[in-house]
Design goal:
By secondary structure, this protein is α/β, with parallel strands linked by helices. The chain is 46% helix and 14% strand. Strand 7, helix 9 and strand 8 form a beta-alpha-beta unit. The termini are far apart.
């Protein structure tokens, strides 16, 4: 694969992942359309078999390995959802998978990984620690290392989400998605802007630990402290040696926003009470950004990627405390 990803790579990814990752629904949100005086469409990647969009990129990257690499096994680092996606695909393709996570990963995601058939390694107090362990195991055991975002096949796989949005709603004006390592924004940005360069791509991170936004502000990848958040899937760094997603996010993302924990909590409750979905904090940040920053979307066509639903009881209880049950209708 060349250093330049194209829409063709995303089409190839879609052909590879058929049968493992789903083409997910794009449904109109009547409640948000009324509230914001626009048309809002929700891309429901929370309905993937593993409960998160990460299955797309994980499957594409795994299928991109040759037979000898798959036979030796694969190692990755994850905040939970990518590891679960890779384990799901590995189990169905008979590929041994090792997943390295840090002690910040919520208990529900740890248990899901234990049940996935992958070998689980808990190491360190942040994603960067887990990544160092994954790279060490790759070197010492001869395992193929697949990172959770900074990899061309992962990015192309995530781009299939954007391709599906454009095929179903080709007149979309804006796409909101969570921003962490940049794999989703890079893939979606490549897909939608290759089809229509006028589409605005908007990334959203939590207030603290927004590694990509901090890196973009400075102009190169930087490390930031990883902190607890309702949007735990968005935690972690982008890697000081970032080879793909930093440059692609610079190129394809039009705007980036940070949102606070209380606003994420209110958005999560909106999804439960108005959309009838229990979703992760990372899946709710698009709604949180519109509300917190009072974005005027009047008359526009908006897609929001609902990225995952792997939410613990403890995290949702925290969201309820932060938002207050009586205030959910006000987001």
């Amino acid at each position: 694969m060349s250093k330049q990803l194209t829409l063709h790579d995303i089409y190839l990814a879609r052909r590879r992942i058929v049968g493992l990752a789903l083409r997910t629904p794009l449904v109109r949100s009547e409640s948000l359309s009324r509230r914001w005086n626009c048309e809002v469409w929700l891309k429901l990647d929370n309905l993937q078999p593993t409960g998160a969009f990460k299955l797309r990129g994980a499957t594409n990257a795994l299928l991109g390995l040759d037979a000898a690499q798959r036979a030796r096994g694969v190692v990755t680092m994850s905040t939970g959802n990518f590891g679960r996606g890779l384990a799901y695909a590995g189990q169905r393709l008979s590929v041994p998978i090792t997943v390295c996570i840090s002690r910040l990963v919520p208990a529900n995601k740890v248990e899901a990984l234990r049940a996935s058939g992958a070998e689980l390694v808990i190491h360190g107090t942040c994603q960067d620690d887990a990544d160092l362990e994954a790279r060490r195991l790759s070197t010492e055991q001869g395992l193929a290392y697949i990172p959770p975002f900074d990899h061309p096949l992962v990015i192309a796989g995530q781009g299939t989400c954007g391709l599906e949005i454009m095929e179903e709603q080709p007149d979309i004006d804006l796409v909101f998605a969570g921003l962490s390592g940049g794999g989703l924004i890079a893939g979606i940005g490549l897909a939608v802007k290759s089809i229509n360069p006028a589409v605005e791509v908007i990334g959203v991170s939590m207030n603290q630990g927004a590694a990509m936004l901090e890196s973009l502000a400075i102009g190169h990848p930087v490390q930031v402290p990883e902190v607890h958040s309702l949007a735990d899937s968005l935690g972690g760094g982008i890697g000081l040696d970032n080879a793909w997603t930093f440059a692609m996010t610079q190129r394809y993302m039009d705007r980036g926003y940070k949102v606070d924990e209380a606003q994420i909590a209110r958005a999560m409750l909106h999804f439960l009470y108005e959309e009838k979905m229990l979703v992760e904090g990372a899946a709710a940040v698009g709604v949180a950004a519109v509300e917190q920053h009072r974005l005027d979307l009047s008359g526009r066509r908006v897609a929001i990627v609902v990225s995952g639903q792997n939410l613990s009881h403890e995290t949702f209880a925290e969201a309820r405390r932060l938002a207050g049950e009586s205030t959910y209708a006000d987001l």
